[in-house]
Design a protein that fits this description.
With about 350 residues, the chain is α/β, with parallel strands linked by helices. The protein is about 55% helix and about 15% strand. The chain folds into two domains: about 10-155, Rossmann fold (3-Layer(aba) Sandwich), CATH 3.40.50.1970; about 160-345, Up-down Bundle (Dehydroquinate synthase-like, alpha domain). The protein has helices at about 20-25, 40-55, 70-80, 90-105, 150-155, 155-170, 170-185, 190-205, 215-235, 245-255, 260-275, 280-290, 295-300, 305-315, 330-340, 340-345, and strands at about 10, 30-35, 55-65, 85-90, 110-115, 125-130, 135-140, 145-150. The strands form two sheets. It has a six-stranded parallel beta sheet, with helices on both faces. Strand 6 and strand 7 form a beta hairpin. Helix 8 packs antiparallel against helix 9. The structure holds zinc ion. Zinc ion binds near residues 119 and 261.
């Protein structure tokens, strides 16, 4: 089994100023840049100076406005032969789009997220629109990940809380994977679970959880990055995606106004932790409070009725995917919990 890991890795303040230097170190002197919507205006002057000082030539440029698979195939046809790497700058959509294009063309992708709202910036998967439906497709883990922690810190806080939710929810996804082993014999990759668990623990036990603390931002980013590596090692999203993700996917379909991925998986993770027993539950209860996720959700709650429907619909989201929601009486217990738990009442209306 071949396991890929990002060869170029920079997570630090003002990393964007040095992007040209990093690309030159890798020998990527002619690149294609794919921006997210509105991103070029914000960062072009920094990038232009950095590219010019390291003599990096941009031979193709595009703004990724969607994650439509047909448009991505059109991009693959437009890409000049001289391109040595694709530099993806922006949020999830631009990165997913670029990872897919890079995968088709066998070109390395340098992921430069400007927000951290989920684990996608360093995962080997792309969420794409295929015939009007969202599909998660296997692509390649980015060859490089450059994260300017100052940019992440200054982004609206909903993005980072979403990233935090997509990080601590690995407590319940790892539990579900091990449960599936006990109940169905599904193979668990122990190394992937250890990496994933360590990543979450590093975040949980970090002392100064202040969003103005750039070091804390770096911890969140590097922990999410490690969960991306865990997926690569596992060969699937299993270590990073359990029952809480099924509920979030169902909520995306059902809710009149879906929220952000990591906010949904974070709330769902707390809900399913109640079914998984005291260890998961106590850990989640502690972390949603200490990271201020609970406080943030009190101001940005999910819709309770939509969430309850999503819980019932969740097991149908993926076939042959055993989670705690596959257990008898899970739905009844979780409905009770949603109605009566003090934190659930805070996080949804
Ligand atoms: Zn996720």
């Amino acid at each position: 089994m071949e396991i890929l890991i990002p060869s170029l890795l920079r997570i630090k303040p003002n990393a964007l100023f040095k992007i040209g230097k990093y690309l030159r170190l890798c020998g990527y002197t002619e690149v294609s840049v794919i921006y997210g919507e509105g991103i070029k205006d914000l960062f072009y002057s920094t990038i232009e100076i950095s590219f010019a000082s390291s003599e990096i030539k941009v031979v193709y440029e595009e703004i990724a406005l969607s994650s439509n698979i047909d448009e991505a195939f059109t991009t693959t046809k437009k890409m000049p032969k001289s391109v040595k790497a694709i530099v993806a700058i922006g949020g999830g959509k631009a990165l997913d789009y670029s990872k897919f294009v890079g995968h088709i063309l066998h070109l390395p992708v340098i992921s430069v997220p400007t927000v951290i709202s989920n684990d996608g910036f360093a995962s080997p998967l792309s969420s794409m629109d295929v015939d009007g439906k969202k599909k998660t497709l296997k692509t390649r883990i980015p060859h490089g990940v450059i994260v300017d922690t100052e940019i992440i810190r200054k982004a609206p806080e909903r993005f980072i809380y979403s990233g935090i939710g997509d990080l601590f929810c690995k407590v319940t996804s790892i539990f579900d994977w091990k449960l599936s082993y006990k109940k169905t014999g599904e193979i668990v990759n122990d190394f992937a679970t250890v990496i994933c668990k360590n990543a979450v623990d590093t975040f949980i036990y970090y002392h100064n959880k202040d969003l103005n603390n750039t070091e804390y931002i770096g911890i969140i980013v590097s922990s999410l990055l490690m969960t991306g590596i865990a997926m690569e090692i596992a060969g699937s999203s299993r270590p990073a995606s359990g029952s809480e993700h099924l509920i979030s996917h169902a909520y995306d379909k059902i809710a009149a106004k879906p929220s952000m991925h990591g906010l949904q998986t974070g709330v769902a993770s707390y809900a399913v932790s109640y079914l998984q027993g005291s260890q998961s539950y106590e850990q989640l209860k502690n972390i949603i409070q200490k990271s201020n996720f609970l406080d943030f959700m009190s101001k940005n709650p999910l819709n309770k009725e939509d969430f309850k429907k999503a819980v019932l619909y969740a097991p149908e989201m993926k076939e042959n995917y055993y989670t705690i929601l596959s257990e008898k009486d899970s739905a009844d217990k979780i409905m009770d919990f949603i109605e009566n738990d003090e934190y659930m009442k805070i996080m949804m209306v």
